[in-house]
Every structure is written in structure tokens, then in C-alpha cells.
């Protein structure tokens, strides 16, 4: 495994720092059922890390029906309202095990931290989790044109930190996110299963298994 003098760690949010990936799953499942599209965990893996309209288009394509642009906007709003009701009560207790400790470890070692989430709800989520102050740079949907798997979000985070891509590494739970990190020419740490995240350089089950020293030269 490549060890390096990294100067920053760029985190995905949903499914890495908190289990909002599950809430996205529940909200998309309900939406998919409402339009008669089949939906399961394997299909959901293709949606993780993909932005709202991109995910909706994948679900609608699976339904085999046609939808107008106005229908699509209404369905996207419907999913988002459901998702927002699921995250309304989010609090610092919803940080995944090891999340707060990983951020502290990285900052204590003098490295910088950034957030790279395509979610338009990212700011609200980090505020409710009490970690909004833990990032030197936050890049969300408002700051990019191309969703993951495009590398833009990770490259924008690195540029915001004033660093080159190889000085940063990325942490992701999604297939699209790992592809984005690798296309940005960064080291990719996967969170989840190595069977799913085949493109990652290393995969751990969760941030409770994270130790910065494992990656530093
Ligand atoms: C990503 C999630 O972080 O954000 C996706 O992995 C989600 O599941 C995407 O669709 C967009 O989120 P939002 O909050 O803008 O609908
Ligand atoms: Mg994610």
C-alpha cells in the first residue's frame, strides 16, 4: 500500500460520517415503489454518491415509463421532502463510530480536512451533527457542475485547501465516489465492503477502524 506525506483528508458525508445513506435509501425506495420501479440494495449501490436528479433518472429509467420534466422535478421534491423528514432529528449522537475521533486525529496531526458531498442537504447535516467547524473546506452540490463519479468535487476540495491531488486522500462509501477519487488521482479509502468497492486502494468496515498512521509515510 502507498504511504505518503499526506497533508489533507477529504471526506464524503453520507454513509461515511453518518448513516444518512440509509435514509437516502429509504426515501428512494418509497419513490421507486410509487412509480412502479423495482428497487433493492444492489440497485441502491449504483445510486450512492450520485446527485438527486441523476439518481432519479436511473430509477425512472428502471420503471420503463416516460416522465415529463415537470413530473421529474415534482418527484425529486417529493423524495427530498421525505428525506428531510428522516434527517430532521439528526444530532451529534448520529455520527458513526469513529467519525469524530478520525476528524480529531487528523487535525491533531496537523493535516487539513475537507468535505466533498454532492448532497444539497450537506450543510444542514453537518450542522446538525455538530461538525460544521471541523472542515477547512466544504464542497457541496452548489460548488460543482459534475456529480461523482466525475473527479471535480475532489479536485475542487484539494484546490480549496491549496494542495495538489497527491497531497490529499479521499474517503468514500460509494462506487461512484471511489471512481471520482481515483479519477482525481488520489488514494481512495473505501468504507464498506471490498466486494462492492473494488476500485478502492484499501477498504475498511467503518471509521472505527481508521488510524491515520496506517496511511502516512
Ligand atoms: C449523496 C448521496 O451524498 O447525495 C446520494 O450518496 C444522494 O444518495 C446525493 O442522492 C444527493 O443528495 P441530496 O440531499 O442533494 O438529494
Ligand atoms: Mg456516501
From TrEMBL:
GO terms for biological process: carbohydrate metabolic process. Coiled coil: none annotated. The active site is at 12 (nucleophile), 14 (proton donor/acceptor). Gene3D superfamilies: HAD superfamily/HAD-like, Putative phosphatase, domain 2. It comes from the Bacteria. Pfam families: Hydrolase. Keywords: Carbohydrate metabolism, Isomerase, Magnesium, Metal-binding, Phosphoprotein. Substrate binds at residues 12-14, 28, 47-52, 55, 79, 117-121, 148. PANTHER family: 6-PHOSPHOGLUCONATE PHOSPHATASE, HEXITOL PHOSPHATASE B. This is Beta-phosphoglucomutase.
